[in-house]
Structures are given as structure tokens and as C-alpha cells.
Amino acid sequence: MATMLRFVDIDGFLRERFFSIVNVADTTTATLKKELSDAIGRCDLHIPNMRGQGYDGARNMCGSWNGLQAIFLKDCSRAYYVNCFAHRLQLALIAAAKKEVSIWLFFSKLNSICNLINASLKRHAKLHSAQRNEIAHMVAIGERDTDRGCNQFRNLLRLKKTRWSSNFDSLCSMVDMYGSVITVLENMVDEGSSNSIRGEASGLLIVMKSFDFIFILHLLQKIMGLTNLLCRALQERSLDILNAMNHVSNTKILLHTLREQGFDILLRT
After folding, report:
1. Alpha helices, DSSP H only, in 192-240?
2. Residue 223: pLDDT above 80?
3. pTM for the full predicted model
């Protein structure tokens, strides 16, 4: 577990330290408090001088009664807790996605596709083989660059509910390997080891070829490309509240521009 802590000492000077804490036996509140307190003490800092805490929304971290922030608050009444900016963004995105049925269904199907292919080493190998053939074809017709670092084999990345921003990587991998995934699913329909596998692959193949899936895939890639930049900016160590608000405002402007002007371009692609 890696944690960045900021402390203001008695004289009011800001002192920043980065602690990399390893070999934690468990993630209970008592264990985390002990490890953090020991790390703070080794840097000659003092918990009573703490002026703020920032964690994600996990119950053992932000719980009002038994969470880590509540325990530290008992030792220092001015160590007010603020939820992690980046985690708040993730929570907002998750809440928005759940309210839109088509988006919820898209992520559900995307997760099913990733799970089905990644569940078997044989299917994973066939995915790489399909990638190899597709890359060779695209290079031959001049639609892919051949510079160093280009055309690397990729894996179909699973979705992670607790790391919403990482789902952008899953979307990008699906866009990049769309044709290869189609090839693997078609192979499973023809050569699947059981009726259930063939049936599941057939259903997901229909989903992947639908307009709704393709449109939402590219739309979310554009939207999450913007929100991913914001999420990364909110995790910068030197970020203050004014710069955070500027990042949020700029992202809102970019999203509004995408909403007003981006759909025609998206439909043409």
C-alpha cells in the first residue's frame, strides 16, 4: 500500500512525505493506524499536528465511527477528512452510468466478453494469433505505422469496478482489438467445446456487431479519454484546490463541446 501524507507542523510550515508501506498483515483500521503512525514517527512528525486526511471511500478508511479517519480524528480534532478527489470523480461516473440503462448494459456485455475470452489460455492464444494476422494485413495495406513500439500485442483488459478510470484502458483495448475479438468469437461458435460455450459466444457476437454496442464503445472512449485526464490530474501530488477546480472546469467545457459538436464526427467514423 502506498500513501502520500501531508502535515503542517506547529510553526505552520508545510512538510510533505511519501511513504511506501509494505507487508501489511491486513487492512483493518487498527493495523493501518499502527503502520501509518510508525511511518509518521520515523519522519519525526507528530499526529497531534495533523491538519487533514484524504482517503478513498472504503469503509475501513472513511467510516464515521470506526474508520481510519475517525480514529485519527480522536487523536487530533483538526485532522478533518476529505474524500480523495479522484475517487469522488469515479463515484460520480459510476452513479451516472448506473442511471443510463444502455450504458449499464454495454458494460455488462463488455465484461462478459472479456471474461469469456480470458477464461481460457487457448482462447487467449487465438486472440494473439488473430491480432498477428490483423496487424500484418493492416500494415500491408498501409493503415498501420511500422515505427518502433507500434503494433504491440495487447491483452483484452478486464473491467475493474473499484478503479473506474482504468476502464478507459479496457475500452481502448476493445477498440484496438475489435476485429480480433470478432474472429475469436466466430471460431468459438464453430468449434466451441459445448453448446453453452457456442451459445454464449453466438449471443456476444450478435451484441458486438450491433450498432448500439459499436456506437457506445466509441462514444465512451471519447468521454472517458477526457475524464481519464482529469482523474490523473486530480492525483498529482502538487495539486491544490484551486488547480483542481480549474481542471474540473476545463473538463466540463471539453465535455460540453463534445456534446454539441462531437456526434457528427463520431457518426462519420
Report:
1. 195-208, 211-234
2. yes
3. 0.68
